[in-house]
Amino acid sequence: MQGSLGKSTGLGLALASALAFGGSGVAAKPLIEAGLEPLHVTWLRVVGAALVMLPVAWRHRSLPARRPALLAGFGLLAVAGVQACYFASISRIPVGVALLVEYLAPALVLGWVRFVQRRPVTRAAAVGVVLAVGGLACVVEVWSGLSFDLVGLSLALGAACCQVGYFVLSDHGGDTEDAADPLGVIAYGLLIGAVALTAVASPWNLDWSVLAGRADMHGARIPAILLLAWVVLVATVVAYLTGVLSIRRLSPQVAGVVACLEAVIATVLAWVLLGEHLGTAQIVGGAVVLGGAFIAQTSAPKAAPDEPVATSVPAAADTDARALGGPRRG
Predict the structure, then answer these.
(1) Phi-psi category of 64—alpha, beta or left, where left has phi over 0 and alpha has psi -120 to 50?
(2) Residue 50 in contact with residue 164, Cβ under 8 Å?
């Protein structure tokens, strides 16, 4: 009963995280169209969230001494790595192609669990990944601007690998007595990510006057500072908090597939709020992604052949698998 309740809570948190992350684009795009560089919006997003979480970091000030590798990995991979690789990739290849490659992360998570942690994965999780990736190809209409650029594709794949780090690191040590508090991990991850992004974003060239004006959102003139507040508070702070907590209640592979809904949510919100109309293929693709996520979330991690089959989320999350957290996304 407790396992079922924990999984239901985890699924709700995963959906909330996908909704929060998916809402970042509709707020960020008007800022970019108003004159801000994409990388500057990303820097503002991460730095703003880091400042919001600063009191939490102070409360968990002993955490860097206890888990320096975990915090460094989360900040460099889950925060800075995904953002930097993604924005670098879309400067060379179409956005749709970059998104599709980045959201190969759930499949890579399954590979990590199967071949690195040496844990069997359920057929439902594998089928869910295949459906989600295929549906995403339709959502982003990958065929509409396909071009081969080895560097661009490599950068997008780098973003996917950083996504894997996000899911695995978020799950790291979650069931041990000395588990790192997820709030502390997020707070220090954002701080480290902010420092790393400062080195590549050149924020001293940022046009601060844009934030004092208004940005156009499908005919509506919205104060730019309000859009930035949404990106910082909801699309970053809330998104990371609910995302990490969901992974600790589900599993990296299941949470990864549910996270594919982020692209569907972003597309639908852009349709409603920005007037970017959906085609038939995108609607069908979104339905396929939903189906894949539903199939994957009904699965439970499989036990190794010599271990009892897990019947609940806490039982399935064995200590050895949790302790192998290693090298994700925003």
Answers:
(1) alpha
(2) no
Note if the pTM is more than 0.90: no
Which segments of the chain does DSSP mark as H helices, in order? Answer: 2-22, 24-33, 38-52, 54-59, 63-66, 68-73, 82-90, 95-102, 105-111, 123-139, 150-170, 182-201, 224-232, 239-249, 252-258, 261-274, 280-297, 313-316, 319-323
* Closest of 39, 83, 60, 291 to residue 179, by C-alpha: 60
For residue 250, give Cα distances in angstroms to 87, 301, 317, 329: 29, 9, 9, 18
Mean pLDDT by 10 residues, the chain (330 residues): 65 88 83 88 94 95 91 92 80 66 75 76 77 77 66 82 86 64 92 93 91 88 94 93 86 72 75 73 76 65 41 30 31
The DSSP secondary-structure symbol of 221 reads E
| Alpha carbon distance 63, 264 (integer Å) | 36
Reported as type and span, the H/E element at residue 213 is none
Report the candidate in 2, 7, 6, 3 with the shortest Cα–Cα distance to residue 298: 7
Q: What is the pLDDT of residues 34-82, one digit of tens each?
A: 998 888 988 999 999 999 999 999 999 999 998 999 999 999 999 988 8
Tell how strand 220-223 and strand 214-217 pair up: antiparallel
Q: Show Cβ contacts of residue 279 under 8 Å, excluding neighbours closer than 6 positions.
A: 141
**Other C-beta atoms lying within 10 Å of the C-beta of residue 56:** 17
